Batch of 2 targets.
Target 1
Amino acid sequence: MAAAETEAGGLRSGMAGAAGPAVDEAGAGAGAGAGAAAAVAGPAVDEAGAEAPAVDEAGAAEEAEAPPPPLPGLQLVQQGAEARVYRGLFLGRAAVAKLRIPKRYRHPALEERLSRRRTAQEARSLLRCRRAGISAPVVYFVDYVTNSIYLEDIVGAITVQDHINSVQQSGNDTSSLLTLAEKMGELLARMHDEDLIHGDLTTSNILLRPPTEKLDLVLIDFGLSFISGLPEDKGVDLYVLEKAFLSTHPDTETMFKALLKTYAATSKKSGPVIKRLDEVRLRGRKRSMIG
Amino acid sequence: MDLTHQLELFPGCSVTLLLFSHVKNAAALRKKAVEGSIEGALINPAMIVDPFQILVAANKAVHLHKIGKMKTRTLYAEIIFSLSPNNNISDAFKKFGISDSDTAVLVVLVVDREKTVNLEDIASQVEGQQVSLDELPQLTDTAKVKKMYKVTPQEEKIGTLLDSIVCRMSTKDVL
């Protein structure tokens, strides 16, 4: 899959390599508007915007999936396994458009159902978060035809991953990282108390709203989220974060410990969850199941 | 005076908002709207906090219209329905449409590329003064809006009232 692109300057997005098998989907396939891919880039993208839009023209004839949305100032931000993320202006506001990538290896009926379910889950979870007072982007529009979702763009935000990396590299003020960990623990505790499981907790799915010093966290990417009250699911959610944390950021064991401590203090139902987390840890890969 | 915005996802489609105050013939207008003889959606400005709210509703309505999945019978009715946080159509008309005693009216028009916006036509039918949309915040009944959309106190801390409203509007059909 194409790597993530930077936003500066004119650039060609990596969409050419998007579909693994570069099949020209002129007629068939479950993808929306596949045949229109070539025609879209022309009138649709507003080139007059200040930023250089990074839409791939039909130079790559393999551009088989859904065409990018015709938003002014459109830029491809990231291409993940599940979806392509674009930035642009929607109804006059900075917005993020998430277009799901159709997986051609799946049976079309399954693909449709799964895509729709994930989009719906994402929208539902974002609303649930908002209602509970957990910071998450506002949903502007959900398109169930192309299974795309248009969200608020938090301008100037950086991921916690980038923040931790920059703080560690600059080598000073690691105590602020402990405060950050505590804030994260608090946020996750509140989320789990709403019986909301994120499903894909990593440091790149938590954003810091500017100014960074305020440690105002925003959760994003609820595509794999679901509702559950079971300590098992919450424990697994935390385990996923722990694994992602420790593998991406070296020497952060104390940070994660602080996170768990605040989590346990903030959440009312944390006892069984932490217990479960310890059990899940023993379960992981290359672990002996003895005892 | 009026506000026009081109819908990005539907090139060629643009939405125009007109605000009238000191309106005297609200009852007659409402009747015309129910009959379908007015080419526009007549909305109660007390329930609107920002033009963006209307744009989101219009965007959704146009989308559903294009795919033939509207819940109501006309595009303009669909816009009013999209404003509502629940799926009760008649309730939406009652709360977001104009009532006979209203003195302010917000008119929303949606035009396709070919047709031209006929502002004078609409303006002539309304017995009132057209004012700039900047006056909309003065006409908003914030308490009523909060009650209608059931905005929780913890929600108010993480975003504006507009954020809460827009989120509910766009996700009401998935819940």
Target 2
Amino acid sequence: MADEVVLLDFWASMFGMRVRIALAEKGIKYEYKEQDVFNKGPQLLQTNPIHKKVPVLIHNGKPVCESLIIVQYIDEVWKDKSPLLPSDPYQRAHAKFWADFVDKKVYEVSKRVWTSTKGEEREAAKKDYFETFKILEGELGDKPYFGGETFGFVDLSLIPFYSWFYAIETFGEFNVEAECPKIIAWAKRCLHKEIVAKTLQDEKKVYEFVGQLRKLQGLLE
Amino acid sequence: MADEVVLLDFWPSMFGMRVRIALAEKGIKYEYKDEDLRNKSPLLLEMNPIHKKIPVLIHNGKPMCESLIIVQYIDEVWKDRCPLLPIDPYQRAHSRFWADFVDKKVTEVLLKMGTTKGEEKEAGKKEFFEIFMILEGELGDKPYFGGETFGFVDLSLIPYYSWFYAIETLGELNIEAECPKIVAWAKRCLQKETVAKTLPDQKKVYEYVEQMRKRFGNG
């Protein structure tokens, strides 16, 4: 029986992009179902009743939620090709730690920048944003990827945020490359991978979307 | 070469308790070092420079941080006995989801209840019960979240039980009245020697919380 794989997702979601990259890395055929996150459909609410969020992977009718959990599931089920996590337990724990850091910190500091109003709030948000990325640059070091010589779990968890950089830089009025050149160099290296280049969303399109979100939240300018 | 295992921890930490239960389940000998969180040791700051938090497991000199990541590491390294996670990938994903739910929701609501007053605190209490109702729904009629045996989700949640007396007394609520299944499940877990020996006395936790509240002026 052929595998039936469905992904409930939203085009601009960094979390969804992680799953799309993982599925592409493994060469898995799947049905992509775009969700209206402002008007959630019954399938999303039924398959993720707890958090009601994208992405949701539905494999042979069974739903898996939370992007990093989904990616680990994909890596375990389709284990014969393109491993996403290292096989050594210590390296695995290290990769999970940094992906967890991205989850806990990067989304939050990014959101604070694009939802902030001018002045002190924005300056504080920008400071935290750069501190977070400086820590990531420290972890990257001189390696081509967080995973070492090859693109791995941590790279996959972080690279989708690159498609949001233009929006964050424009609304935050700053330049990421000036402060964190290593991160930009790393991101451009990742974009040489066809899978990443095809998955990441156009940054201008994301910028327009963030503009809409800001309007909805009553943030003008 | 014998394994050298060190755990940097703090006795009332639910996160630390998870790791202690996992180590006990696997029968791993380790050195326990209790940290003074107001005066963190150079070893802790060196081993966890990013978050500066306990627990930290140091295995043959290599540190691991974040309790659920540590527990999964323990399960993978000492895989010959007492599996903590299921073997089936879907069941593993399901366990990780619920442990993640506990991590995200339970800690956050406890913090809310402990640090707010008035309407905000009442909202926190309501949310606390909503979260535990969801957990009761997931538990269903199973003896453990893991099914017939104590597993990853049980391990991630049971440490909070040692805080229930403090939560009930300071929050003025009765958990057993609202969530009898959870309390029944907790008592079932406490019949396991590894859990009973790991969880600190509830009154001792209450005294610790009272001290914290006085120190931070919430009393």
